[in-house]
Amino acid sequence: MTTTAPADGVGSVPAAAVISACLSAQAGFPARSRVSRVFGRSPLSVDSRPWYLGALGELQVAARLAKLGPDWTVLHSVPIGERGSDIDHIVVGPAGVFTINTKFHDDARIWVGSTRLLVNGQKTDHLRNSRYEAQRTARKLMAVVGEPIDVYPAIVLVGARSVTIRERPVDVTVLRDTELVRWLTRRAVKLTADGRDRLAEMLTRPETSATPSGASSEPDLTAFAALRREVGAARRVRMLWGTAGLLGGIVLAATLAINAYSTLLGG
């Protein structure tokens, strides 16, 4: 089983920051009416939906990373600044230290070049942000260890319809979540067991990570679980309505066909 941060320590809760942001954005949104529930309208607000999808992506990647063996340590939602920014996942294992930037792009078409990553044809800052996260982590570790530490950034895509790699970026790996564990475990060994443990411990120190002032360290997981159930129920209702509409269309078409056939026979 993969090692994770202590239950009460930095990096112990996957998607902690985005779950908190999602619930905060959702807090002022009015509850759905009975009619909205009957027709399966999503309970998510326009503001909370991106955070919600981001949380789902991070949780899915966290589940993938949990399949790594005991030689690996995984930290989640690690604070890196005073403005509430965080790194989705930091992984320490035989192959080194990795920063994982999870991106949930539902049903999107992703295009990757050497210097840019497009989502449905739109430019993003994904590559730049991933480089920054790795560089900042490396600087923090060097300040504590006293020597340079290589940190490798990766962008992990969740939910994309297609991913086209035209040219791979030199310094950032881009891959789907289904490829992540295999990619990590097949890399060359760079760290000893003692070195891995030392770096993993340092990443949880206050001087290495930065918890934003006034921020809650623990998101309301119960509230988020309830929101997920509500979103799932609404989706199922919409699917039922869609199925009913399809069946209704088939019945109508069959009725019209029978009537037309009867008219022809009668003629």
TrEMBL record:
UniProt keyword Transmembrane, yes or no: yes
Keyword vocabulary terms for this entry: Membrane, Transmembrane, Transmembrane helix
Transmembrane segments: 239-261
Organism superkingdom: Bacteria
Pfam families: NERD
Domain NERD, residue spans: 53-164
Alphabetical list of PROSITE patterns matching this protein: NERD
Record-given protein name: NERD domain-containing protein
Organism of this sequence: Microbacterium hominis
